[in-house]
Amino acid sequence: MVVQACADDPQVAVHAIRNLARIGFGKVRVRWSQAGFGRTSSTSRAQHTPRNLFGFKDGTNNLKVEDEQLLDQHVWAQASRPEDDWMAGGSYLVARRIRMHIETWDRTSLGEQEGLIGRTKGTGAPLSGGEEFTEPDFARHGKGAKPLVPVGSHVRMAHPSQNSGVRMLRRGYNYTDGSDGVGHLDAGLFFIAFVTDPRTHYVPMQLAMAKGDKLAVEYLKHTGSGLFAVPGGLQPGKYLAEALFT
User: Fold this and answer.
1) Which stretches of 134-235 are assigned E, i.e. beta strand?
2) Do 147 and 208 sit in the same domain of this protein?
3) 80 pLDDT above the threshold of 80
4) How far, in Å, CA of 76 to CA of 152, rounded?
5) Share of residues in the chain with pLDDT > 70 (%)
6) Which structural domain, as residue segments, surrounds residue 10?
């Protein structure tokens, strides 16, 4: 079972989890938890794009709650088989704890950082030109006939055009757990995403990025992960995942 508690004040979220654990004493126990802060992607056009711990705008191309048709296609689970009826209208939550090697990143030049991301650090615009929300032009080349958005950049590797049109709704957070004992920050991204089916909308993309995304290979380390089925909303007189148990 996964529980996500969000609040403007972290103390409120901590006490919410504490009270749930207290109520469930003897029946459930907390096996693992992670405290996070700030957003690492915008989920509405009313929000500004936040920055991650590398200092770059994060989640520019994220799905937005206003995109109802795209949410139906990429986020809300469908009952393609009778045994999947209980998940219709729900979603699958992918969680990953990703440590960022911030000290190594800080020693990397601005030009190299932007090449690894595929966007400018200041405005968040793609390296192919335009503004933050301009679609990257992966066919545009610069000096020496090299692509302006590098082949191994994070933007190119994660873009829907490179992943059979697949998209996801990201709702992650930053985290920091002090230092690791040798002076390095134990900090990074607590990645959370919602998808209609992880087998088609997450796993293939992750496998491709694990091989070709230079940012992931050199500056990130995955230290924990989880996959959860989140049933649809409740109706009066019903209980969570009732269709599964009945």
Assistant:
1) 169-170, 173-179, 185-195, 220-230
2) yes
3) no
4) 30
5) 100
6) 1-33
